[in-house]
What we know:
Layout: H1 3-26, H2 29-36, H3 40-46, H4 50-73, H5 79-99, H6 104-139, H7 152-168, H8 176-191
Amino acid sequence: MMQAEQKITQILDAALPVFVRFGFRKTSMADIARAARISRASLYLSFSSKEELFRAGSMRAHTRTLNEVAAVLEGKGRAIDRIEMAISVFQRELIAPFGGSADPEELFAANMALAADITLEARTKLLSMLTQTLIAAVESDEIELEPLQAPPAQLANIIVAAMDGIKHARVDGSSLADDTKLFMRLLRVAVTSRTSQ
């Protein structure tokens, strides 16, 4: 890795915990420079504003996560198990890091304000990957969608919508992982083909 790339990595690695701790609005470039152990002047040579820096972090996180999700979905094993692992990766990399914030909703809102195009493109790619996985599972009789009267693309959209809803909803102290596992149990029961049981 070239020195400039190492510096960008160092800055982005340092910035996320700062944004999580202080929130987007209260984080300053000085805070990020301090966390990255560089001068403010050096930070400004790489990023002209915290908005640009936040956007770069969002791009990196979404790209890395989608690559990992693709690897999981293209791997071996039952489709529903791979979908559950892919969702777990997505949540661990893109949602859980904000969970330690005093105001995660502010960070999610900042992401949509500054990087909506990145987030929406990632969502489109995720939907496509889930749809292809579901299509293959239907074709191999691993799952059955006829009882649901839903095509693979519609079910993929419901899965992604559920993931979004789960990140915002907590009941009786349940965790993101607990609520996701419940959703996946429901999905598994709904789509399991009789011939694959």
